[in-house]
Amino acid sequence: MKRKPTRVPNELQTPLLHKPHLYAFALLMCAGSATCAAQTDEASYVLSSGIYSLSGGDVSNSHGLDVNLRQISDKGNIWFAWYRSVEQGVSQPRLGWDNTFDFSAWRVTPSMQVASSRFVGGSLSVETGETWFAGAGLGRTNLHPYVNLNFDPNDAWMASGGYRWSSLNSFSVQVVRDNRQNPDQQHVHALYRTPLPSGHRLTVDVLFKSGLVEDQFTRRTGLSMTYDWREFFTRLAYDPIINFTPQNMWRVSVGTRF
Question: Is the pLDDT of residue 184 over 50?
Answer without folding.
Answer: yes
